[in-house]
């Protein structure tokens, strides 16, 4: 039996510098230092070179304090509360449907793997502003902050999968509520190439396209090239759309779209994502780079 020690680097506890806390919570480093010194809100460890280092527990506490403070409670009063009293007050904020604390609640749910809080926050936002504004104004900024956590090594694969799967489930649920557009409308086939598994953005594009009356066929993650060609031959879409986020060799990207242009010279090929932006100059003759739905709609209307 394989036994992994809790001291293994694989299970290293999250550690944050004060700048990381600022990026994740939106609270200025200067304010964090004041709260720490004057009110003893946090008790960080220090490295040999006296650099403050904070744990997940400190991040969770700071998020709690931040939400209580934004709800109108003075920091001096918060500092006097026991953890039990803070948790009781926090519960009222958790069930509050307003969007003002949504970012803190999402990060708190991620750190603690709290599905109920995560789903409740997303559901409340969608109920209030709809999926499109929820995604653009709340989920994308949240994913940006998660990117920071990933880069500094303070989020593990389980947390990332937990978060992305819940977002994925919600978008699919909203798509399922949409009427299927008429088959005589412009059609777009959406897919991810063989190396790609990050489908949240592509699913959101499918939702937006269907909301605009565009017929879509979604083929999902890591689609082999030959299967793509077979599907296009069978479905005859007006265009195809793929998303490229995972870092790959530039030669692979260029070769892929060059071959696609050769095999399907008259098909409109839309593509987006970080790898498309990085290789814009090299692939501009083979694809239509897109950043939003109106661009796609406009190109679909062109002969």
Sequence-ordered SSE layout with sheet pairings:
Layout: H1 18-25, H2 29-39, E1 45-46, E2 52-53, H3 56-70, H4 75-80, H5 83-94, H6 102-112, H7 115-151, H8 157-176, E3 187-191, H9 200-211, E4 215-218, H10 225-235, E5 239-243, H11 250-263, E6 268-272, H12 274-278, H13 280-283, E7 288-289, H14 293-301
Parallel strand pairs: 3-4, 3-5, 5-6, 6-7
Antiparallel strand pairs: 1-2
What's the helical proportion of residues? Answer: 55-70%
Largest sheet: 5 strands, parallel
User: Structural class per helix/strand content?
Assistant: alpha/beta
> What is the name of the CATH class of the largest domain?
Mainly Alpha
Determine the number of helices (DSSP H or I, runs of at least 4 residues): 14
Distance between the termini: 63 Å
What's the Cα radius of gyration? 23 Å
Kindly report the spatial arrangement of strands forming the biggest sheet: 4-3-5-6-7
Shape: elongated
Oligomer: single chain
Order of helices and strands: HHEEHHHHHHEHEHEHEHHEH
| Total count of strands | 7
Can you tell me the CATH topology of the largest domain?
Answer: Multidrug-efflux Transporter Regulator, Chain: A, Domain 2
What's the mean pLDDT score? 84
Number of domains: 2
Can you tell me the CATH architecture of the largest domain?
A: Orthogonal Bundle
Low-confidence regions: 1-12
Strand share of the residues? 5-15%
